[in-house]
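Problem: given the chain below (98 residues), write out its structure.
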Amino acid sequence: MVPFRWAITSAGKIAADFAHAVRQLEGHEVVAVAARSEAAAREFCARHARGAAAYGGYEAMFRCDRHGADACYVATRPDSHRALCERRELARGERGLR
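Solution.
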């Protein structure tokens, strides 16, 4: 069975809770984490998502195809969700659902 691969934007408590929930699911894994700084993303990965790629900045993760994420969980403040989703679409040349 090929796992469903998640990327996470943010390295805060909600993101940590989500990473914990993903670990409880069979056939799911966190493969990438983006935070405002690469150091914060690396620390998050070490604590909550071992083996996931760490990115300093959301666009860096959005533009990268190496992690192979199937979906991205946006764990930032709610008022930033729309802008992050639009930035992801622009970075990847995609158009998302509205």
